[in-house]
Amino acid sequence: MKQSNSQANSSAWITGAAGLIGRYLVQVAPQFAPAWRARGLTRSQLDLLDSAAVRREFLADPPQLVIHCAALTDTVACETNPALARKLNVDVTAQLAELAANIPFVLFSTDLVFDGHSGNYDESAPVNPLGVYGETKAAAERIVLANPRHLVIRTSLNGGTSFTGDRGFNEKLRRAWQAGRTPVLFTDEFRNPIPAVETVRAVWELVQQNQTGLFHVAGSERLSRWQIGRLIAARWPQLHPQLKSASLKDYRGAPRAPDTVLNCAKAQQRLSFPLPGLTQWLAANPHEPF
């Protein structure tokens, strides 16, 4: 895709560059967004909770684009420490969005802003999060979408290879099998998982089209947690993977959304490639370490 003159040699901040999506955004930028100089920011390079440091760095090295991936995404950690979740997911977002008020700003959000009672949610569907993580992301969305220059990307489960080896849903399953554990997966909890490399390809395209507002970007296949586990298990026969199925009907823990599948038709109309289903992608990429 042809780059606009304003993008040529422009600096793009990628927060959360040590995470799964942040890593892929930086990694594939030369291929999918060659006119942008992607600057990956990790916690060791810039503590986003240090608001004074963030402001100084923004003034010292002003970007022309910010893609904000950094967040507290562990749902259990968010429930355990809701104050920290609000600081990381809402307050940090608010400061970055304010600093980036006059430039493109992209926030990554989640399908867990929905309660999962219906599924097939499009961008017009009302949010109703069941937990702290979804609540903080819904709050962050409202802040970002108040600026007509800015963009929110909601996505579902993302998989791939992270620096720490534990960020993707596939990596968490593989770690469990390596430790000799048998994951318990629900047959009636549905998501539309997607490889992170496909997510970031889509996001770079939307950025280069100067899209704003709210978009859903996720896989094209509705799968239960159990079905996802079986697909990943087939990828790693050498680990002798074991799975145990369960039903949300018998679950007595914190509320879980049964079906947060995202309708991605709006984004798909603007993309040059089809968002893949996980089954299709794994079959087409048999040698990827997924």
Keywords:
single chain, 290 residues, six-stranded parallel β-sheet, 10 helices, 12 strands, 37% helix, 16% strand, globular, disordered N terminus
Explain this structure to me?
With 290 residues, the protein is of the alpha/beta class. The chain has a single domain, classed as 3-Layer(aba) Sandwich (Rossmann fold). It is built from ten helices and twelve strands. The strands form four sheets. It has a six-stranded parallel β-sheet with strand order 2-1-3-4-5-10, with helices on both faces. Strand 1 (10-15), helix 1 (20-32) and strand 2 (36-41) form a beta-alpha-beta unit. Helix 1 packs across helix 7 (196-208) and helix 4 packs parallel to helix 5 (132-145). The longest helix is centred in the N-terminal third of the chain and has 18 residues, at 82-99. The protein starts with 9 loop residues before the first strand and ends in a 6-residue tail after the last helix. The relative contact order is 0.15.
